[in-house]
Each structure stands twice: as C-alpha cells, then as structure tokens.
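hey can u check if this looks right to u? its 322 residues, i copy pasted from the old doc so theres a chance i mangled smth
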Amino acid sequence: MSASRSDQDSPWKDILRQYFPEAIAFFFPETSAQIDWSQPHEFLDKEFQQIAPNAEIGKRYADQLVKVWLKQGQQLWLLVHIEIQAKPETNFAERMLVYHLRIFDRFHSHATSLAILCDRNANWRPNQYRFSSPDTELTFRFGMVKLLDYRSRNAELEQSRNPFAVVVMAHIQAQETQRDSQDRKDRKLSLIRRLYEEGYERREIVNLFRFVDWVMILPKGLESQFWQELKVYEEERRMPYITSVERIGFERGIEQGIEQGAQREARSLILRLLTRKVGELPQQVQSQIDELLITQLEMLGEALLDFSSLSDLEGWLAQQEQ
C-alpha cells in the first residue's frame, strides 16, 4: 500500500494515556495486580524529559513515565516503552538500562521497566541486559510483550472488553493486510462495527476509532467506500458517533494546517474530505478551490461539514466570487 502515516503522528501515546490502567492490566497483569488503581496515577512528563532529552526521543518511540501507588501504600514508578517501528533496535536493552539508571541517579527511585514491541521479527525478543567481567556481573531484566504473539490468541482478543484488545487487533490486522487493501477495508469496517455491537460507550468508540483509523489507513478510493458503508451502518443504528469523529478530526487537522501556514496541506485535507462528502470533484471545481485564499479555506473547512451534494459546494464557491 502506498499510503502511510508519520510516526510522529502516532496515537500510541494518546491511547496509552487515555487507558493507562487498562494497558497495564492487559499487557502486564502481574504488575497491575500489585497496583492500587483506586489511587490516581500521575504522568511524570517533566521528569521523563530529564532522563530522555529531546535528542533521544525519535519517531519510533512512545514512552511514558508514570507514578502509581502499590496496594501496600508505597509509590512506584513505571517506565513504559512502546517500540513503534518494525525495525529492531540493536541497543534496545542497553537503552532500557540507561533510562532505569538515570531515573535512579536523578530521583533516587527505581522504576519498573516495561516494553511493548510492535515489530514483525519473531526472533527479536529483548528482555534483559547483561554485563560480566572477572569481578563484576550485572543482569537487568525488564517486562516485555510482543504484539506479534497475539496473532494466535484471536479468540481471547474478541472476548475481551479491555480497550487494548481492540488496539492489538487493529495493529495485527494492519500488518496482515499490508498488501491487500480490499481485505483491510473489510476488516477495518468489521472492527469498527464490533465496537457498536459489543456495547462500547460513545467516548470509547471515539477514542478507539481514532487509533484504528490511523493504523489501518486505506487508499483514497477504498477510504471513500469505507466512509460510505460506515455512514449507512451508523444511520441504521441511529448512532452517528463516527460522523462526529470525522467532524472533530478534520476540523482539528484544518485548523492545525492553517495555524502552521501549511496552506497546501490544508487544501489537500479539504479536497479529501470534499471527495468523501460529495464524490469526485470536477477539474473546474478543483481549480476554483486552488484559487481560494487561506481565510476562505478556513471558512470552507467549516462549511463543507454540512454539504450533502456537489451543488452545495458549487453554490458556496459561487458566493465567494460575488
């Protein structure tokens, strides 16, 4: 598939922050069982910046340093690392050790280190760092799960009501359908339908849809078909949750593009949504949109959410010429 997402736009960090207790319970149940989740957890963003300067935070990571409370009353720091990209990192275990030591050096606190690996290499399973010399020996072990292993646990994923079961299914199905766009479209729609059928609340559907939509990206033609089929499904159930997501997401994207002066990106985003709304655009209409000023693009970004046909768009463009 030619379409791709920027790793910097990864929603892994968002979904982890939204459902942090659920993530630990899903991936690391033994650790979760020791934590008193009735006490609020705290994301230690400033502290994490001190142990991992910006130069070390690249596209491929989604790390979180979190303070929780154990059932015995002591506080515990969790360092959760998600390796996003498919390429294994040779010094991964060493870096996990370095982060652990930096936390202890700066804050005199040990951290429980946990890693979630998203790659496809079944043989790459780093879970410890070892050093040995005649008079010194060091072994540092950390928790590790590999999403690849969940391929053989599909029945378990489907029965689970933990939001991260959906996250894992989306990730695995995106990998399995990399070369089959039609299959990906069908699976994506089935996965979203499942959220409704399993009785997920609106907020959960919105949050999980954002992740699924990002990881299971489709080519433009199939993406348009996906939205049309999803719209029909929502109308049948009288639950326009994803319609709201679409509105929120594109409004945010258009706003950010305009704020950053990215006129070309904003125009491209608007054209994409217009195609979803009213179908393929005639060349003359596209040319008219190309001539719009940035302020007009902003207005169009708001107006198009209420368009239902090409004539609505043509009428709006005609008003701009008056």
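The radius of gyration is 23 Å.
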